[in-house]
Amino acid sequence: MIGDSDHVAAGPAWRCPTDGDPWPCPPFRALPATEQVARLLTVYAHQAVRDLRHAADPVEPTDTVRRFLGDLSDADAKRVALRLLRTRQPIADPPPTYPHRPMRPLWRCSACRLPWPCEPARRGLLAAYPGRRDALLRHLVSLKVEAQTTLTRLGSPPTPAQLDERFVAWARAHDPAES
Ligand SMILES: [Zn+2]
Ligand SMILES: [Zn+2]
């Protein structure tokens, strides 16, 4: 399962967490070119063209497209870059008050690599919405819907009950007086 690989990167730096190489690193490229790998590269390219364009050392979107999606002609790389830049971004992440961020589209934690939201992420989410559980639940439901869509596209969807348990039920059950 690709989500268990040590060579899956996250933004905004897009470097492999294991070898530190610009991602996709050589060990990731060596994975069998399954449909899942191709989809992951496409989804990540979507995020990376923006991240790297605004990095301290900016990268041209066409160069990012080539890096993620292969050796395209100038015209093709330009066309793909424009399409990626015009397509709407995924839903914004919660406020960056904690390092345990969701890595899309696998929905694993960027820090501990467990299915997101991991325990530290849950504590961070509760802290980000003090006394505003309705707002937190709305936010979690929107993330759940997004995760369901992307995990289904990747071909390994958890059941709706599992997703509800993982994304929403823990916050619904949480006693606000404890936070
Ligand atoms: Zn690597
Ligand atoms: Zn975590």
Kindly state the mean pLDDT as a whole number? 84
Low-confidence stretches: 91-97
Structural class estimated from helices and strands? mainly alpha
Order of helix and strand elements from N to C terminus:
HHHHEEHHH
Strand order of the largest sheet: 1-2
* Percent of sequence in beta strands: under 5%
Q: Helical content, roughly?
A: 40-55%
Shape: elongated
Beginning-to-end CA distance, first to last residue: 36 Å
Give the cofactors and ligands.
Answer: zinc ion
Characterization of the model:
This protein is mostly helical and 179 residues long. The protein has 2 domains: 2-86, no CATH class; 102-178, no CATH class. It has 7 helices and 2 strands; from the N terminus they run ααααββααα. The longest helix is centred in the C-terminal third of the chain and has 21 residues, at 133-153. 24% of the residues are buried. One zinc ion binds next to helix 1.
How does the SSE layout of this entry go?
Layout: H1 26-29, H2 35-53, H3 61-69, H4 74-86, E1 102-103, E2 108-109, H5 119-128, H6 133-153, H7 160-173
Antiparallel strand pairs: 1-2
One zinc ion is lined by residues 7, 16, 18-19, 21, 25, 27-28.
Task: Kindly summarize this structure in a few lines.
By secondary structure, the chain is mainly alpha-helical. It has helices at residues 26-29, 35-53, 61-69, 74-86, 119-128, 133-153, 160-173; strands at residues 102-103, 108-109.
